[in-house]
Structure formats: C-alpha cells, structure tokens
Design goal:
By secondary structure, the protein is of the alpha/beta class. Helices cover 17% and strands 28% of the residues. The protein is built from 4 helices and 39 strands.
C-alpha cells in the first residue's frame, strides 16, 4: 500500500516542505533510509543523517532548522516521535486487524461469559465464571482462571496466565509468558521450616496497561495488588504482593519491587532497579538503572546508585571511587610516617 506525503501530512496535521506527491510504502531508520520509506528525526545525535538519508519522507519537529541542503521531503510536526507513533499505530491497525472466532480446540467453561467479536486460539483455557470483554484477543495456550476478568479489546498473547479472580482492564496488552496473580512470596518461619501464608487477595490491572514478556505481578496476601491505568512494564519484571503502581509509570526490564510498596504516578524506573518493601515512592520520581532504593522517596526526586543518591552526589562519589586504590596506598603511607614521627618524639 502506497501513500503520499500530502496524505500523511493531513493525517498528522503536518506541514510539507518539498514534494507533496512523494510516495512511501514502508518505514525506516533515518540512517538506513531507502527510496519509498518514511523516517523521523527527533534526536540531535542523528541530525547529520538528514542530509544524506535516502528516505523519501522524514518527519521533523517544527522547531528544527536544517543547516544544510535537504534532498528529501520533510513533514514538520509538533513532535516527530509522537507523530511517528501515531502513524505506526495506524499502520499496525491496517496490517493486523482484530480477528474473530473461537477455535474448537479451545476449552471454554460453559459458565464463562463471552463478549462480542472475541478471538480465542487453539489450546486456550477459559475457567468457570470467567468474563471476557468484547473484542478481546486471546492466543494459544493462554489461561484465564476461575472468575477472572479480561476487559474489552485486551490482548493476551501466547502462554499468558491470568490466575483466578484477577482482573484485567480494557485495551491492555499482555505479552507472552507473563503471569498475573501467582502467589505472593509469603512464608512464616517455624521450627520445622518456613510455613506458607495463603495468598487470598487478587491482582487488578486497570485500562491501557502493557506488560512485557515473562513479567510477573503477584496476587495480594489480602486485598489487591494494583497496576493503575497507563502503566508500561517491560520484560522480566517482578511486582510483588500488595504493591500499587501509579498511573502512567514506566519500568524497564529486570527491575523488581518488593511487597506492599506504593509507587506514584508518572515515575520512570530504569532497568535492573530494585525497590525495597513497605515504601512510598512519590509522583514523578526518576530512578536510574541498577539503583537500589532502601527508603521512601519524595515526589520529583531523581536517584541513581545503590543505595541510591542524587545524580550529582553519585557522580562525585564515582570519581572518588576510581581513585580508591591510590587513596588507600596514600593513607597507609601516611600511617607509617605518623608511626615514625611518634617514635622519634618518644625517643627524645
């Protein structure tokens, strides 16, 4: 399918600079642009590629002013990255329209409530009294437990498990292998060993949440583990029992949040970060990759390191850390000199 620069500009409210009849049929990175592709420029590090790219059309911010001659057609928009996301969403919707139908190889309990226009692939299991919303897409080997709920237009990819009584909102995407509602890590020490504490709560995932492959959100001991609307969780993340993740917070891969911690709205948590249990993390907090958070964090803070500190302190400490062997040798030399001086004083 081909589309012209003029048609694209109309879709994203852009301003054309160049040939409005330039046609595109695919997407490309700006450094790998080919004839017939559309690309974008939003990172200044890639500015120089604008003058050599072979892409037929490039999205740029309205605030960007080229410093050299540009051979490609430009479409100026308020935010090039957001405009690209909008186009990719349109393209994906056309290339992958929602499917409909229930495979005869799926097991659906007779008491389950199924919405309109749903799609269920082979070997899916839908438990007793489960509820599946209109337009939901459930792929092979996914399991929806007893009395669990899956919202409208939500996608459960292959091998997703939604345990009993857990709730998934509307327009969510759960990627392959993620597990919603496994038991929280609750054990009480006893003379015979660790005794399991039954986890009788559930997980509630609100609307427009995306959860990556093999990420786990544990059910509450009592009450609810809640992932609020708009949250985006990467692959291989652990959200423990009774956690509450605020709206529109994003978390990169391999991070973990221990139990009963509340994370605020619009937080950004880097990869491999670890957050201790029973804490409160304020709104708009940024936590760097591999950071360790042992205590509460106030709203708007930026932290990095383990234990985490503000970035300036971390940078200063890092400089000192590099010189620790030299400092260690210097201190030892000074200690020896002090001992010699003491001995000389005592012998007078």
């Amino acid at each position: 399918m081909e589309i012209t620069a003029k048609q694209i500009a109309e879709l994203i409210d852009g301003e054309i600079v160049g040939n409005e009849n330039a046609t595109i049929h695919t997407f490309s990175k700006i450094e790998e642009g080919t004839e017939g592709s559309i690309s974008f420029l939003s990172n200044p590090k890639y500015n120089h590629y604008l003058y050599t790219t072979k892409a037929s059309v490039v999205l740029i911010d309205k605030s960007f002013a080229p410093e050299e001659k540009v051979n490609t057609t430009l479409i100026k928009v308020t935010n090039a990255y957001e405009a690209l996301a909008q186009l990719l969403e349109m393209y994906n919707a056309m290339a992958n329209p929602p499917k409909k139908g229930i495979s005869p190889l799926a097991f659906v309990d007779p008491s389950a409530q199924l919405g309109k226009d749903i799609y269920i692939e082979p070997f899916v299991c839908i438990g007793a009294e489960a509820e599946i919303g209109d337009g939901a897409q459930i792929y092979s080997n996914a399991v929806v437990g007893v009395k669990a709920k899956v919202g409208k237009r939500t996608t459960l990819n292959a091998n997703v498990t939604v345990y009993h009584h857990c709730e998934i909102g509307n327009d969510c995407i759960l990627h392959s292998g993620c597990v919603i509602g496994a038991d929280g890590f609750g054990f009480a020490p006893s003379p015979e060993g660790y005794k399991k504490i039954p986890q009788i709560g559930k997980v509630v995932i609100e609307d427009n949440v995306e959860i990556g492959a093999n990420t786990c959100v544990d059910r509450a001991t009592m009450g609810e583990t809640i992932v609020h609307k708009g949250v985006k969780l990467d692959n291989l993340i652990q959200i423990a029992h009774n956690d509450k993740i605020g709206s529109h917070t994003v978390m990169a891969a391999q991070g973990a949040i221990a139990g009963s911690t509340e994370v605020g709205e619009w937080c950004m948590i880097g990869g491999q970060a670890g957050i201790s249990g029973h804490l409160k993390i304020g709104n708009h907090v940024n936590i760097g990759a591999q950071s360790g958070i042992p205590g509460n964090v106030k709203e708007g803070k930026t932290l990095i390191g383990s234990p985490a500190v503000d970035p300036k302190t971390f940078a200063k400490s890092s400089v000192v850390y590099k010189h620790l062997p030299e400092i260690y040798n210097t201190v030892n030399s000074l200690k020896k000199e002090i001992e010699v001086l003491k001995e000389q004083i005592n012998n007078k």
